[in-house]
Amino acid sequence: DVSVVDDASTVKKMPHTAGKIQAAHVEAREVPPVVSELLEANKDKLKKITLDVEYCYLRRSDAEPIVFSSVTHLDVRRSAGLEFISARRWKFPAVTTLRLGRIGNRDAASLVRLLRESPKIEWLEADRITFDRTQLTNFRDALARCPNLT
User: Quick one: which of 22, 49, 90, 135 has the fewest CB in 10 Å?
Assistant: First the structure.
């Protein structure tokens, strides 16, 4: 397991052996590139990811999506984490538990995309979700595509 709290220098010293990390907790001002690379190198082994990120300065990538095939628990504590997931084009088809912080209109498109690409979600919890009427409709439509959500 790996935990990053605003110190990418620790991660740089770690061997980047793919397939060894099962849980990751990233609490930082922004996600350092070395941390993104480490998570992506373990995309098939990771089971749980927590992102507590204050800022995301990335632009959406035109690269192929990166599929985290085994992540079942995803905890995104701030809206910058949702922005980061969208910008990196990460997908989580096996997620069953999604925990969110405060979500508002500017996060709606990222959340809707995440929900549409994660049909196995059984549990969705958020501190607060505040959407206008249009965003709420899109959110409800995305939730309707999650048949296991109770």
Answer: 22
CA distance 43 to 39: 6
For residues 106 and 45, give the distance between their C-alpha atoms in angstroms, rounded to a whole number: 31
CA R_g for the chain = 15
Instruction: Give the separation between CA 68 and CA 99, rounded to whole angstroms.
Output: 17
Average pLDDT for residues 28-46, to the nearest whole number?
90
Please report, for residues 40, 43, 47, 73, 119, the alpha-carbon distance to residue 95 in angstroms, rounded to integers and kept in the order given: 16, 13, 9, 6, 8
What pLDDT sits at residue 146? 93
Q: Taking the model in full, what pTM does it have?
A: 0.86
